[in-house]
Amino acid sequence: MHQPLxxxxxxxxxxxxxxxxxxxxxxxxxVAGVFGVIIIQSVIFMKAARRAAPSVDMSTQDIKxxxxxxxxxxxxxxxxxxxxxxxxLGLFGAPAVLSRIGLxxxxxxxxxxAGIAAGSMGAKLGDASYTQSVFAVAFFAMSIGGxxxxxxxLILTPLLRKGDAKxxxxxxxxxxxxxxxxxIGAFSCLGLTExxxxxxxxxxxxxxAAVMGACLLLAxxxxxxxLREWGLGISIVIGLSAAYLAVGPAVGS
Amino acid sequence: MSSLTxxxxxxxxxxxDFNRTTSRWGxxxxxxxxxxxxxxxxxxxxxxxxxIGPAQLWIAFAAxxxxxxxxxxxxxxxxxxxxxxxxxxQAFMIGNISNKLxxxxxxxxxxxxxxxxxxxxxxxxxxxxCGAAVVHLxxxxxFVGLLGSWLISVIPPSVLLVTRxxxxxxxxxxxxxxxxxSMKQPRTTVFALLVSAVVVFVVLPLVPSLAMVSTAIAVLGxxxxxxxxxxxxxxxxxxxxxxx
Lengths: 253, 244
What we know:
The complex is a heterodimer.
Chain A: H1 18-22, H2 25-52, H3 60-92, H4 94-102, H5 107-120, H6 132-161, H7 165-168, H8 172-194, H9 199-222, H10 226-247
Helix pairs in contact in A: 2-4, 3-4, 3-10, 5-6, 9-10
Chain B: H1 9-47, H2 54-94, H3 97-111, H4 119-154, H5 157-183, H6 186-206, H7 214-228
Helix pairs in contact in B: 1-2, 2-4, 3-4, 6-7
C-alpha cells in the first residue's frame, strides 16, 4: 500500500485531462456491449420477420428489398451523424461519443444534458473548469437521460399495444403545445446561456444558427432533403471555422 | 392487435409468434442496452477514484429531468402509431429516429408496395431498420471509432482547443434553429426566447445560485405562457417531436 508520493496525483479529481479517463478501457468495453446488443437484437428481429413474412404475402425478395432500402437510405444520415460525432470527440472522447451521440441518444439531447450537468456543478464544458469529475457527471447525465427514454419505451410500449385508451386520449392540444414548448424553451435557454461567456461564443452561436437557417431554407426551396440531414454537421464545421479564424494566433500560445 | 377478421388462421398464429418474439426479445435487449450504457459512467464515477458523491449525481439527474422529463414520455407516445410495437424497441435503442430510421422504413414500404398500417408494412419497417442499423454501426465504427480517433491524434492542438471550447455554442445555435423550424409554433418560440432572455440576462446575474435550475425555469415558464396564451385554432393532432 506504500506508494511513492510522486506517483499519486495530489488532487486527481481536479485534473482537466479528460481524455485520460474518457478512453478508459471499461468504457470501450461498454461501447462494444451496446454495439453487440444492437446486433443481437437485429438478428433476432430479422429472423422473426422472415418467419412471419410468408403468412402476410411477403416474399423473400420483399425482405431483401426492404433490408437493402433501409441500408441504402441510412448511408447519408449515418455519415451526417458521424460528422457531428467527430466534432464532439475532443470534448467527450470516442467511447462516450459513440455510445451517446452515435447510438441511443442524439447530439442535441446529449450535448444539452452534458451542459446542464456541468452547470449543476458550477462548471462549463470545454474550459478550465471542465475537470475529470465534471466529465464523469456529464457522461452520467447523458447516459441516465438515454436510459429514461428506454425506460419510458419499455413501460409504454406494452401499454400501448394493449390499446390503453387512457394514454391515447391525452388532451391533443396539450400534447401539441406542451412538448414543443418544453423543447424550444430548453434549447433557447441553453443556447442563450452560451452567449455571456465570450464574444467568440456569440460568434460561434450566431454563425452556426445562421448556417442552419440557410440549410433548412435551401432544403425547402430546392427540395434537397440531404441539406436537412447534414445541416447540423455543416453548421458545426462552419461555426468552428469562424471561431478559429476569430481566435487567430492567440490560441495555443 | 388482433384485427384479423378475414385472415386465415396461419396468418394470425405467425404474426402472434412474431409479436411474442419481438416483444420478449425487444424488452430483453433494451434492458441490456440500458444497463450497459449506464454501467460505463457509473464505473467512472465510483471506481476510478474521482471524488464524486451520490448527491452530485442526483442533482445532475434532477436538472436534466426537469428539462427533458416531459420529452422522455411524450416521444415514445407520439412515435408508437408510426413505428408499431416491434420497431419501438429498435428505434429507441439505435437512436436518430426521425432523420434516419423513419425514412428508411418509409422507403422500404414504398419499394415493396406495402400499405401503411398493414402487417406487410410493419414487417418491412422492422427489416428496413435492421438494414439501417447495420449501415449505421459500420459507419460509426469506421468513421468515428477509427478515423475520428486518428484525426484527434493528428490535428494541431490549437484546432482541438478551439473545438473543445466552442463546439457547444455551435451545436446549440444550430439545434435551436432546428427546433424552432421543425416545431412551427411561432407564438411558443417568442415566449421561449423572451423567457430565456430574462432568465439568462436578468435573473442569473442577480441570483447566480439559480444557474443550476435556469433551464428548468425557462422550460416551465415557456410551457405556462404557451399554454395560457395558446391560439384559438387549437392544434388537433400531436405530431412526433424529435430533433436530431
